[in-house]
Amino acid sequence: MLKVSRICKGFSSQALLKGVSFEQSEGELIGLIGPSGQGKSVLLKIIGGIIEADSGTVKFEDPQGGAKDLSESTGFLFQSGALFDSRTVLENTIFPLSQSRDFDYEEAAKKAYNILSEVGLSAHINKLPGQLSGGMRRRVALARALVSDPELVLLDDPTAGLDPVAANVTMELIESLHRKLNSTTIVVSHDLRRLVPRVDRLLCLFDGKIGFDGTSKSLVREGPTEIKDFISTRYDFAEAS
Hints:
Blueprint: E1 2-11, E2 14-24, E3 29-33, H1 40-47, E4 55-60, H2 70-73, E5 74-77, H3 89-98, H4 105-118, H5 134-146, E6 152-156, H6 164-181, E7 184-188, H7 192-195, E8 201-206, E9 209-214, H8 216-222, H9 225-232
Parallel strand pairs: 3-7, 3-8, 5-6, 6-7
Antiparallel strand pairs: 1-2, 1-4, 8-9
Helix pairs in contact: 3-4, 3-5, 4-5, 5-6
């Protein structure tokens, strides 16, 4: 279980996250949404251990309540993809595995090839990122996030900047790979039409706090007006009824 407790973070004396708390069950797929500039990406990076919170705690526990090392259990997809331009698709995907003390190149290459096959890129393993379309680069980034079989997967706006076809392919891959791997997953996205039908639960970040936590159907019935107004401009509530 993931336990996020009272996370606060500010920049230049301005508070951004103001005590964010939630829990996530093992294998649950959550969508993290909210207006731009609310700190969704910052919260994801705090959970992933990339940046530090000013206060609060993040714990990832096994079923017996024992703490897991987040650095070894987490796969992260950055909003920009953050691929290494001078490395091939295969080399980019291998990179997280190469950080392990018991790194074995041949074994890592097999794992990387297998996950690249899952995302439809087995024929492109020797290409550089610059030789790929935007959607293909995003799939490489997704493969890299998943290659180590992480128990916690954090995906920051995986469809940002993609055309509708590529966005659909990416979200379908995320959904199918989540079902296969059963990882505890958080997806930050502004693409609500594709996100909402696929997640188990929604977290809405408003004014530095979780303004709503529940299913899309309960959001229609019980969500605060300002959150429903925000979402209604991006998602047809009839789809959640």
